[in-house]
Amino acid sequence: MTSVAGLPAKPRIRLGTFPTPLQPAPRLSAVAGVEIWLKRDDLTGFGLGGNKVRGLEFLLADAQRRGCDHLVTGGGPGSNWAMLAALAARTLGMDTVLVCYGTPVPPVGNMALASMIDAEIRFTGDPDRASVDVVVERVADELRAAGRMPYPLGRGGANPVGALGYLAASVEMAAQLTDLGLAPTALWLPTGSCGTQAGLVAGAHWLRCGYEVVGVTVSRPVAECVNRIATLAAAAAEDIGVPGPCNEPVVVDGHIGPGYGKRSADGDAAAQLVARTEGLFLDPIFGAKAMAGLLAAIRRGAVVGPVVFLVTGGAPTLFTTP
């Protein structure tokens, strides 16, 4: 276990390859009319990469500290989080149960990858995403009754420990911005389970970064996102003994499209633009919709550059999202 430079010491297991690149997007910027930089957390270097690797470094260190031998978590059948959590747990010798909402589906994409590492997969039989959290706790109780030591985690790993991943990322990016002489006005990202934005909000406040952290909701109502982000950011800051943020989190609505886990027309258009200009594929569920939100804000004249866009990964969903 290691600690993060600049971050009060917390248990951490190294999974990713950091720092991830912070690179200019000159051709995209020329089309958009605002200077855009890309923080490439699709290149975190574990599995197929993605933002969830950062939180898992702290969550699984906490699991080991507690002596846990079993990870129990879940999400949708295509969940990047669930697959990466299972993969990380397996590398540490932990057994894994993944709980998915709905009914069994063919093992493709992230489901196929989770099956490859022999994760046990259970379906709730209920299309409500919240059914995952109920069954995760039920499975954890079953394991305790059998004498095991489970580590149950809600969808996305969105708790104060998981949010430390992006508090640490704020330290990393602050050093990169200093080296580049870059002072962005905002950091844009997709917001789903809210843990990533919470860590970035707490980190930006603690480090006095000067940029606004703007999430584009891809899943939940804005009011729910704002409440979750504020609560998680405050708890993560308290966990490491630094002042918590006092401003209300910024969350942009209007880009969920047909629903969570489904493509949207403006998301697809944004993803095509980024692919054509920068050779980067944004996933359709998170990254594409967040980029659509940024581009729409630029068209409204609501964005002054430079801005940084967090690329959160999700490569397996490129091939499985209808």
Overview features:
Rossmann fold, four-stranded parallel sheet, 322 residues, alpha/beta, six-stranded mixed sheet, single chain
What features would you describe in this structure?
42% of the residues lie in helices and 15% in strands. With 322 residues, it is α/β, with parallel strands linked by helices. It has 2 domains: 22-51 and 159-319, Rossmann fold; 52-156, Rossmann fold. A 6-stranded mixed sheet has the order 1-2-10-7-8-9, sandwiched between helices.
CATH architecture of the largest domain: 3-Layer(aba) Sandwich
The CATH class of the largest domain is Alpha Beta
Multimeric state: single chain
Rg calc? 19 Å
What is the element layout, followed by pairings?
Elements: E1 22-24, H1 26-32, E2 36-40, H2 52-65, E3 70-75, H3 80-91, E4 95-100, H4 110-116, E5 120-123, H5 131-145, E6 150-152, H6 160-180, E7 186-191, H7 195-207, E8 212-217, H8 222-239, E9 250-252, H9 265-278, H10 287-299, E10 307-311
Parallel strand pairs: 2-10, 3-4, 3-6, 4-5, 7-8, 7-10, 8-9
Antiparallel strand pairs: 1-2
Helix pairs in contact: 2-3, 2-6, 3-4, 6-7, 6-8, 7-8, 9-10
Can you give me a brief rundown of this structure?
This protein is α/β, with parallel strands linked by helices and about 325 residues long. It has helices at about 25-30, 50-65, 80-90, 110-115, 130-145, 160-180, 195-205, 220-240, 265-280, 285-300; strands spanning about 20-25, 35-40, 70-75, 95-100, 120-125, 150, 185-190, 210-215, 250, 305-310.
